[in-house]
Amino acid sequence: MRPARRYRSATGGRRAAGLMCAAAVCAAPLLAGCGGGSDSGEEQSRSVPASAVAAPATASPSSPASASSPASASATGRLTEDQRERKDLVPADKTGYRKAADIATGEVSGGKLTKAELKRGSDRKPVWMSTVAAKDGTEHDVTVDAASGKVMRNRTDSDQDADDKRKLTDRLSKAKLTSQQAADKATGQTKGTVTSVELDDTDDGTRIWSVDVVTTDDWNKTTYDVNAADGKIVRKHVDRD
Q1: What gap in Å lies between CA 25 and CA 40, rounded to an integer?
Q2: Residues 6+ away with beta carbon under 8 Å from 106
Q3: Sign, Cα dihedral of 170, 227, 139, 163
Q4: Under a CB-based contact definition with an 8 Å cutoff, are residues 225 and 233 in contact?
Q5: Smallest Cα–Cα separation from 141: which of 126, 160, 161?
Q6: What tens digit of pLDDT does each residue of 92-144 get?
Q7: How many helices (H) does the chain have, and how many strands (E)?
């Protein structure tokens, strides 16, 4: 941001010159011409109310043109940190959600996906980090290289007990929609790239699939909460940060 322009005080020689000019001409219409050149332009700048020049006009926070509005950052080409991360990460994913989900579930006998998210791995390369439940409810953390589609890790959650496994199988049994069907519901509303799917519950106990869709024209992320029982969209949130 450029520094605010400073306006000199109308004192000293310039004021005296103005008075002398007024006395010599003795005609009000000609006063505007006194001093001439750059002094005239500066005098006109001083005549603007201080409130108008103290700072640029600031739009209302709710206005799309507001400097603090994330939407304006996309519109003007200035991406936020999260938007830049998505812009770098999404094109680097050569596997895609569907294939990554199939690869992950294929690593577990009778496996069902409960979560998949496109992230950066420890080496900063893109990976799909997934959670897959076996038929008995045992959770497996499966990591798939997003560039090659190769399985990098398949690890069982050692913290699970019998009650945890029972609860997980119960949650999955009540989810009539698969993660793939929920992703289709979301992309049917917003055309984009699926970067995350997760089975979850709302505060009132509604079982949902939470699906993130990134639009590559502005790199915003739209999250859809899809009812896992009937497929209805219960919430939509656009993240412009």
Answers
A1: 16
A2: none
A3: negative
A4: yes
A5: 160
A6: 999 999 999 999 999 999 999 999 999 999 889 999 999 999 999 999 999 99
A7: 8, 8
Using the predicted structure, report yes or no on whether residue 151 has a pLDDT greater than 60: yes
Count of residues in the chain: 241
User: In the structure, what pLDDT confidence band is assigned to residue 23 with cuts at 50, 70 and 90?
Assistant: very low
Q: Average pLDDT over the chain, rounded to whole?
A: 78
Tokens of residue 33, six digits: 């011409």
Q: How far is CA 30 from CA 24, 41, 47, 149, in A?
A: 10, 15, 17, 81
| Residue in the block written with tokens 């859809």 | 224
CB 228 within 8 A of CB 210: no
Higher pLDDT, 31 or 129: 129
Helix 97-106 and helix 179-189: axis angle, to 10°?
170
Going across the sheet that includes 233-239, the strands are: 151-156, 139-145, 126-133, 112-120, 193-201, 207-215, 220-227, 233-239
pLDDT of 165 over the 60 cut: yes
Dist. CA 236–CA 222, nearest whole Å:
7
- DSSP conformation class of 82: H
Give, in order, the Cα–Cα distances in Å from 67 to each of 57, 59, 74, 79, 96: 10, 7, 11, 13, 34
Residue bearing tokens 């940060």:
241
> Could you tell me if 92 and 146 are in contact, meaning their C-beta atoms sit under 8 angstroms apart?
yes
Determine the Cα–Cα distance for residues 115 and 197; give it in Å rounded to an integer. Answer: 6
